[in-house]
Amino acid sequence: MNREERARLQPDLEKLADRPHHSAARARKAFLQLLLKQEGQDRVRDEMNAQALEITAQATQTCIGMFTSADRNSQFVGEVWTRDAALACAVFGRFDPQMAVETFTTILSHAQPSGRLPLRVEYVRHWANYVPPLRWLKRMGIDLITRPEAHAVYNNVRFSIPARDSASALIVSCGELFDHSAEVRKFVEDNWTFLLRSL
């Protein structure tokens, strides 16, 4: 039942309030209240979908995919972390399948011939991004943080444990989106052998 039909039934609900003891009237009233509650849920869902689209737009760069943060002041902007991006794509890819395909393509294009996926793909120098003077210089036009070309990092043992579940997260994300998007389906079909090799 669409919103126009629900709006048309609203006067009926108000009329039934005058006949509270009639069993059929009570049943119809309960039914109409349920429909109006559903309309409220639809409104909440629409608002959540709009927020999801906004987050996706903020965290995405065309032809690269989804960064780890939607906050443009974050140290993680300019980096595609394989596990984080894959899990985010499983959710936000329903709203923007092209973004998911671009993210998956970025990750696979930096995989090693053995199938090993990168921990992250950097478009900025990760550790330089944590040095406040370098960030200040970047704001003034002296950019020592941005890399001239993408750089894949496969291991990061100095400060953190390497993500061992990156490949499985990517495959789960592809599986989540497979039935929802022809673009993702084509990506999976074209790269299935390589995706299996990454395991």
The gist of it:
The chain has 199 residues and is mainly alpha-helical. It contains seven helices and five strands.
Q: Main attributes?
A:
199 residues; mainly alpha; two-stranded antiparallel sheet; flat
Topology readout:
Blueprint: H1 3-16, H2 23-59, E1 60-61, E2 65-66, E3 79-81, H3 82-92, H4 97-109, E4 120-124, H5 132-139, E5 146-153, H6 166-178, H7 182-198
Antiparallel strand pairs: 1-2, 3-4, 4-5
Helix pairs in contact: 1-2, 3-4, 3-6, 4-7, 6-7
The average pLDDT score comes to: 77
Strand order of the largest sheet: 3-4-5
| Distance linking N and C termini | 46 Å
How large, in whole angstroms, is the Cα Rg?
24 Å
Count of DSSP strands: 5
- Helix-strand makeup class: mainly alpha
Helix percent reads 55-70%
Helical stretch tally: 7
How would a crystallographer describe the biggest sheet? Answer: 3 strands, antiparallel
Proportion of residues in β-strands:
5-15%
- Multimerization state: single chain
In one word, what is the shape? Answer: flat
Could you please describe the fold and organization of this structure?
Strand 1 (60-61) and strand 2 form a beta hairpin. This protein has a 3-stranded antiparallel beta sheet with strand order 3-4-5. Strands 1-2 form a two-stranded antiparallel ribbon. The two termini are 46 Å apart. The chain is flat and about 70 Å long. The chain is built from 7 helices and 5 strands, in the order ααβββααβαβαα. The protein has 199 residues and is mainly alpha-helical. The longest helix is centred in the N-terminal third of the chain and has 37 residues, at 23-59.
